[in-house]
Design a protein that fits this description.
heterodimer, A: 485 residues, two-stranded antiparallel sheet, 17 helices, 11 strands, 47% helix, elongated, B: 1086 residues, mainly beta, 5-stranded mixed β-sheet
Chain lengths: 485, 1086
Amino acid sequence: MKRQSKGLKNMNKMFRISLMAISLVLISCEIPENLNDNPNEITVSDVDANLFLNGAQLANVIVQVSHLNRISAMFSGQLIGYTSLYSNIYGYSLSTVESNGEWNSAYVGVVANTRHIMASAPDDKLLVGIAQILEAHAISSLAILMGDVPFSEVVSDKEAPKFDSQKAALDGCDALLSDGITTLSGATTRSESYDIYYGGDKDKWIAAAYTLKARIALIKKDYATALSHAGSGISSSAGDMMYKPRGDAATPNGDKNLYWEILNGSRTGDLGNAKEGNRSYLVDLLDPAHSSYRGNAKTNEEARYGYYSIDENSSSGNTGVVEQFEAQPMVTYTENQLIKAEASARTAGFSAGLGALNSYRAWLAGGGRLNSNYNDATKYKYDAYVDEDFATDGMENPDGASTTDALLREIIEERYVSGFGTYMPFNDHRRLRGASETNLIPPFPLNTSAASQHVERMPWSQDEITSNSTVSDDPGLYAKTEVNK
Amino acid sequence: MSKNLRITFLFSIVFGFLNAQSTIEGSVTDNDGNPLAGANVVVDGTSVGAASGSDGTYQISIPSGTVEGQTVTLVTSYIGYKSQSASVDVPSSGSVTQNFTLNVDAIGLQAISVTALGFETNRDQQGSTSSSINSGDMTRSGESLMANSLAAKASNVIVNPSAGDPGASTSIKIRGANTISGSNQPLIIVDGMPINNSTTYGGGNNITGGRTGGATSQSRINDINANDIASVEVLKGASAAALWGSRAANGVVVIKTKDGSSAGKMKMTYKRTESFDEVHERLPMQDTFGQGRSGKWGTQAESWGDKIADRTGGADVVDTSKPYFVSEDGTFTQYTITEKNSKDTYVNTNWNSVFQTGRFSQDDFQVSGGDATKTYLFSYGRLRQDGIIRDSFYDRDNFRLNTKFKLSDQVTMTSKAGYTYSNSNRIQQSSNTAGLLLGLLRTAPDFDNTHYKGTYVSGGTEYTGRHRAYRRYLGGSSTNPIYNNPIWTIKEQKSTTGLNRLIMSNEMNYTPKEGTDVVVRAGIDTYTDNRDWFFPIGSAGARNSGVFAQDVITNKETNYDVIGRHNISLSEALSMVATLGYNWNDRTYSRTSYNITGFLVNTDKQTVNVNTAAENSTVDNSRLFIRSTRTYGLLSVDAMNMVYLNLSGALEDHSTISKSYFYPAMDVAVQLTDYVPAPFTFAKARFAWGQVGVRPSAHRFQTLAESGFGYSSYSDPVDVALFGGGYRVDDDKGNESLKPEVKTETEFGFDFRMLDDRFSFGLTSYSNEIVDMLISVSKAPSTGSDTQYANAAKMENKGLELDGSFKLNQNVDFTFNWATNKNKVLALTEGTSVLTLVGGSVSSVAVDPTFNGTAQPLGALYGTGSQVDENGKFILDANGFPQITSLPVILGDPNPDWRGTFGVNGKWNGVSVNALFEHSQGGDYSPRTQWVLRRFGTTAETANEVTLTEDLVNVDGNTVAAGTTVRGSVHDFGGGKVLLDEAWYRHGIGGGFGDNQAYNFAVKDATFSRLRELSVAYDLVHPMISSMGLSSVTMRWTGRNLWASYKELVGIDPAVNQSGVSSGFGLDYFTNPSTKSYLFSLTANF
């Protein structure tokens, strides 16, 4: 009995000790602060800021040269949607869903990441400057296309960022471009492989920023300012901001010309411009055999006709503008020089305008943007125009318009042709219609007989409309945006 | 009160010894001689009595001057047993012995219920709802998978095996859906330890097919051997489960494994079960029409070809100069067919080449025993199962050792450990061109699948190892057969999974003094699951260049509880038990996956060396860490032996939530027996209220740097990986303020017994609302994010449950239950009107009430339907056919209106018979296998022929003249008779291939009735038995799912679910079929 009770005592003691031990273990095993940190993915702060750049630039590629760009070309007599979705869109059935890709790419793909770059590497002036310009490029593009867009409250703590007026958004982007230029002025160029546009060349970025500022001024019809900015803009095609496909031919998707990717995939046959019997106005304009041909004694467009013609049924058959590795223009010498041409013709006089146009034609005469498959000098000619060509009965003025209007008309037509692949033709058309300068615009027809007017804007994104409580219904395709009213 | 008494009597005993007065002593045991500890023995009409000790003995000291020398009635009572009384002559001094052997009370046994913390309690004093399932009920149906045995055993507990594959997962749903994005499966507690019951689909690669198009996955609950289970308690209500906080929203299943008996002798049991399994439902197929289209034989995908009976018969005309196929063994050559003459059909041959009578053998060996200070139970279970699909198997070995040591009067130590090894091969299924039924059921009736592999010869070139299937009857130069030949699916592809699992739970119970005890529990549940996936070169689809993949999944859960309980007796009429506990739980999960694609060598060897080029292999891993602590308290009050109140609360801290959350609960039971008239013998009213939750998934606080992303606006992707890699700020925004989903449930009910407790029933009504439900919320892109995992949605459930039993006489009793649950999604969130749970041409979704104006249940079926006007009539096209809606609409509700079961149990002279019927009323099911096969023209419903009595128009607008005999049928959609022919099924909207079909016709009423179990057992009584050293031998014959009747469904058991254990349900798409079984078992007790 005694022994047992001693055993019992030991047992209780043992038990108490173990109980205490367990309690101590448990209390010391509280939940560590960082236990819920994700063990599988990299923390944002662990990644160098430059590694966020190429993703943001790819997102901007989508904003600039993807679906909406092709749609804008369909609304500008440049492309035709033959079947499936694109034939509906071509017939002006465009839902807000079609803007989701560009919209998400701009805000989630570009701005969220440019903001992160600015915040995480504030002292890296090269990265910050690039980020500022990239962001302004993406958002100003949407503002030009759609009118009012969110800008001042985006990627902030606001759950429903407000929509700024088109002008306010463009002014904001313009100011951001100025900031970018200032920032980059204090930066040093370095080799930056994650800058897939310019490889870290600050001067090219600054020039592109000026061209973008010139673009914004032009959109606002502030031609003097446009001319002034264009003076510091991209001065040669070496400074073009392009989406440059890469990789090997065997990998068809992910890094190739975006138009080519479409034709190579399940959308073969959906859209193009040169299908016999159903060609776009642009192609007719360039076809030496067509009655609308724009060539003349000083101009031979045969090479561009070939280069711009798209075989909608084939990826491999396309060796021109939508060839697998063909670069796609975003902000270019072409745009800058033709802003100069138009703005100087309007503000500095006929001669200045003609001079600017002729220097652009001189570049075209050197091959311009033609690729090696089409760079056959016998098939193109861009001789310099002289004053007389725009005088009444001159080769560019058969209908007796004023010489300045005749020159402007030629400049706008050149912008229309050279701007293929960018938003320029769509933007010019709306701008000039808004300014009642319909005499200056290429007379491409409406796509359907049922339509009575040209499209004035691209729709907001469905995703934004359903998730942002500050947004009202989309105003539709035919509501003029603020700058074009 | 009993404890109160016990203390009093303990004192009496002590004083009794001191005063050497007269005593009554003896033992209380059950029928098997096991001592019953804690039984009350009272001298009737007095407060004199005692409680039996752990060895079952009791001793009552009679206070002097009371009843010495008199004859008294001694009454003993024990929870779950029938009370007994005996007349005892109390001596004037000295002692008298009175032993009691108590019989189990059939109804009374149901009176014990187990609480969330694993303690036993008296159901008659319980205010919350739970259902008990005893060990006999768990093993009677003889399922190889333990969870399937829970089917139809309790109201509102819907148990569905996701397919009939051996080892396939089981969905257990209690009181409907209680979460949208979390797991909808209940928490499983085994011997006080929460265990993992996940169902992991796919792996780190889409190549394995994932949830809706791979192989069936297993439910980890089924690692437990049903024969080891002593009892299962299903805690349905929030208040019952609340102490488990954020893990209890779907209810809690508390499982206790068996203990050894302390009767002092060793018992051995051996049980052998043999099961024969058949395919439960088979879609009727046609063999009237051959492969082809438009009534002509051809090698197209469909069987809308010529009428086989009209062929000339004899051998097909072939052109031996054209390409041909030679089977692997060289015994069969197929030349290019130029004229199809053969009338042979192969529907059954093809079926039987992949299906068989499944079979399993299970051996269970158990040794148990013990004495007053120790008990032990060792068991070994060995299952070897071959599935109804050839080459599928599931083998499982279970070892268990449960011991209990009474170290002293104050300390008891229990240790329960179970080890499981399982190994299985699963067959690819569902939406999967390399799956079984897809290839089999699309096969044309006039194509023989037998020779599935061989050499294709064309122009002298030999292509070896080619896969021959009905769409490539010569094999071909390409390695892609488009659809697998089903024999290839079972013979050449492998999806194996090997599991090693240990679940161990230890408990120390310390009783420093009577009425106070401390329980310390420590447990671990750890497993490793190795999965191999092998698709040789020539498997259909994206895998045709060969895939070898492996996933190694490890999971570990550690759990500690320290629980203190103290009895407080304030007066005769008021006593309470206070419980205070602390729980610490830690879980880690890790998966490492790799896959090798594009084999360089055409081999069936499963090795990484099939391709050593670096770019052909990928590695992927994922880890999860989850930890929680919980401090909880429970106060149980017993007032006047009539009102029983429980108040509880758990304060939980969880690594996946931003701040701790408190889960309160209360329940009250009021016994009203004294206030109800005869024939009622018991009445109780109860009310319960409580909160339970669902924790957020792990690692969602931070916004991370995402890699491997790309952008595309319309079929024009750019991929960052091809531009030097790089990162972006994840478009799925982190959320640092995550809270648990919280379900608040109120329930009330009544329990009655009447006719001497022979008839008993309980009625429960409950309603709950679940707020802060976690879903992926669509963000305005201008915020910089696309989605965020957030507390946004809201849902409710309302239901009614009825459980009851009736004991007709000593031999026959009946049980029944009935339940209904109505679920409604009250809100999703702005920008997210439809949330897809399982996608497909018919999806299972959650929708916001704004989607179509009324709240829909979770899981609603969704897809394109037919346009209808305000009266619900079809808006017909010019030809009188319906037109599809431009956008998907709600097509149906997969939740049943109600479900009920009825069981009967009879016993005569050693023979016992059990039958269990189940009926499920209403609800919808989409049999998409049947639907898509309308396009393929292989099912019996497509083989109908009709001779037109009038000119009729088909869906293409073509008129078919009267008198023509057409393959099809005549139908009226409301605009007059039209002809449903090949055009309707194959390229109209009446088939089911892809989107944009009239899927309103593909949603059927899922009402069914079935005989779940029928078993006959016989206890062998023969002198031989005891002479062989056996104490008893029982033989049992069981039939499972022998009979079923469906209101609208044909050839499909609606238990089958394409997405397995999932919040989305009610869908089938070439999912492997369920089974019906015949079992025979023999149990010998030594």
